[in-house]
Amino acid sequence: MKNKVQLITYVDRLSGGGLTELQSLLDGPLNGVFGGAHLLPFFTPIDGADAGFDPSDHTQVDPRLGDWNNVRKLGERVELMADLIVNHVSRDSPQFQDLLQHGLKSSYASMFLTYDRVFPKGASEAELLSIYRPRPGLPFAVVTLRTGEPRLLWTTFTPQQIDIDVQHPHGRAYLNAILDRFQTAGVKSIRLDAAGYAIKKAGTSCFMIPETFAFIATLTEQARARGIEALVEIHSHYLQQVEIARHVDRVYDFALPPLVLHALFKSDARFLKKWLSVSPRNAVTVLDTHDGIGVIDVGADAADPQGRPGLLGPAEIDEMVETIHARSQGESRKATGAAASNLDLYQVNCTFYDALGCRDNEYLIARAIQFFAPGIPQVYYVGLLAGRNDMELLGRTSVGRDINRHYYTRDEVQTALARPVVKALLNLIRFRNAHTAFGGEFQIEASSDQTLVLNWRQGSRWARLEVDFPVHAAVIEYSSRDGVRRHAVSRNSDQGLSI
């Protein structure tokens, strides 16, 4: 993956069309802005029960977006990342429909994970309650096959998403077929979606157990053999993220968004500094994604009976969440937890811009911190345009995460790109892409609890970010061809970062 800012987007929700329209946008007003693009699920269908994360056919492009030739052409302009949805497949998939039709005689019967395969002698109450799941309830659904046989299937996320037995040859063959399709299409990176839940074992939490690490390592090697890098998507305790990073090419830094919010809300950089001192250097950094703003990533270890403390304590997390609700005028509360049908236990659903109360300077400071943090930055399409909460879409679907999944028209994109805050953000992105210091060594300079000073240096080239949280001000100093330059981070500073 290039050490340049990456875009993460749904094809149709940013382009106003399909892959051809997205390529026109990246070749036009966004030309040279991104080193790569993560295309969120573009498989058949893109509008299932989970916005494409429940594909019925993971090896086919939804024809409303284009085809694999369009994917290949786009990949010739920017490096592409695609999702390998590891844990499950749609109940509308041909494989599962074959199981429904033919029962246990189906050639795909062993591809899907059943309760009795994990618990052949049954499970105790304690074993069932120890299973970690991101949503309330147990991860099972009763399905009656058309042959009359009832089966208790694993459904970690929803009854529409049927878990795969990734340890069975049929499950492995399914995943390998997707990798082969990606390789042929020129996909350079994959995100292992929901990989932390892929391995189930009796007597464990069935989440990020030792066997899961081994599975992820094996799948990563299979991807590498095809010239594809692997990024692991897991929400978990921060020390677990550090451990995961040792086994894969890249891991998400999901702890960064809540810690940046906390620092801006409380003018306290201590917790953010602690994390940046130990965070994985092979991370992909984010502030926002197609999911919500993570909470579990900075909290105590929910899967550990001893309750390892997190980066933030319960009181700090509660206050941060309430501040998001207040700054978003209560909109995030309407999209989070019991107020929304997806009931994710570890997320606050809100655009990052609204989480900050649409305060342009604070938003740009947050982005500057992200771009100076260790790792490769990834910017979500709504965040790129400093997007607002889509309350209309939320009202139509009652899916909490849709608040941050707006469908932009082409005119809306053009209007957003003309806003001062977006122009300033694009200038920061270009600076992060162009300055060679970001390929060197990272250092956190000693400073007060209310300030943050991040430094990158490679040879004689250097770049330094200083944030003063009480006054919400930030300055970038850096080496240039003309000597030392100084740039204030604000919505009125969309020019001036000349390398």
Characterization of the model:
The protein is of the alpha/beta class and 499 residues long. It has 3 domains: 6-86 and 169-437, Alpha-Beta Barrel (TIM Barrel), CATH 3.20.20.80; 94-162, Oligo-1,6-glucosidase, domain 2, CATH 3.90.400.10; 441-488, Single Sheet (Glycosyl hydrolase fold), CATH 2.20.220. The chain has 19 helices and 21 strands. The chain has helices at 11-15, 19-27, 68-75, 94-102, 115-118, 125-129, 169-185, 210-224, 238-245, 256-266, 270-278, 314-327, 331-334, 352-355, 360-372, 381-384, 391-397, 410-417, 420-434, and strands spanning 6-9, 36-39, 43-44, 57-61, 79-85, 88-90, 140-144, 150-154, 161-163, 189-193, 229-233, 250-253, 283-285, 293-294, 347-348, 376-380, 441-444, 451-458, 461-468, 473-480, 483-488. An 8-stranded parallel beta barrel has the order 1-2-5-10-11-12-13-16, surrounded by 4 helices. The longest helix has 17 residues, at 169-185. It is globular and about 75 Å long. The model has no long low-confidence stretch (mean pLDDT 93).
